[in-house]
């Protein structure tokens, strides 16, 4: 047989086999990956407040949903849910790497200010990853996002996170100041 025919047949066969292996791997691992992401998110919630179990999920205003907030919860000091101690927002924003690998994080508020920031996941490229590393390096960096803007190549990632944090802060303070 001619090499012009053998090579495409060989490459097509190898491509189909590789695609099949990836499909089978995805089939067996997608549930474990989703459970791992859920477990990491759940553990992150307890770093915000020790009694995270006493919480109530709130409706997400349209303005927050547009900016990337996927969950808003009010946290209470007691199981009867009579004394509010803060809020936790879960966000998923699009940074430098694009929609396929969003930046996911939680941010909590208590006593009129940011309580904690916990990164969940991101697939940022080198430029965005520098900003994400800077942000995660110190708990207080979330209070001074403007300083992180100076990280080389971080403007898109900075803007995405900054917009979400600003929107969450505004929403929290509106409820806190009532």
State the main characteristics:
about 20% strand; five-stranded antiparallel beta sheet; alpha+beta; single chain; about 180 residues; 5 helices
SSE layout:
Elements: H1 3-48, E1 55-58, H2 62-67, E2 69-76, E3 84-93, E4 103-110, E5 113-121, H3 126-137, H4 145-148, H5 155-176
Antiparallel strand pairs: 1-2, 2-3, 3-4, 4-5
In words, what does this structure look like?
By secondary structure, the chain is α+β, with helices and mostly antiparallel strands. It has five helices and five strands. A five-stranded antiparallel beta sheet has the order 1-2-3-4-5, sandwiched between helices. The longest helix is centred in the first third of the chain and has 46 residues, at 3-48. It is elongated. The model has no long low-confidence stretch (mean pLDDT 85).
pLDDT < 50 stretches: none
> Mean of residue pLDDT?
85
Radius of gyration from the alpha-carbon trace, in angstroms: 21 Å
Q: SSE order in H/E notation?
A: HEHEEEEHHH
Our count of helices gives 5
Estimated structural class: alpha+beta
Distance between the termini: 81 Å
- DSSP strand count: 5
Strand content: 15-25%
Helix content: 40-55%
Major pleated sheet = 5 strands, antiparallel
Major sheet: arrangement of strands: 1-2-3-4-5
Large-scale geometry = elongated
State the gist of this model.
With 178 residues, the protein is α+β, with helices and mostly antiparallel strands. It contains 5 helices and 5 strands, in the order H-E-H-E-E-E-E-H-H-H.
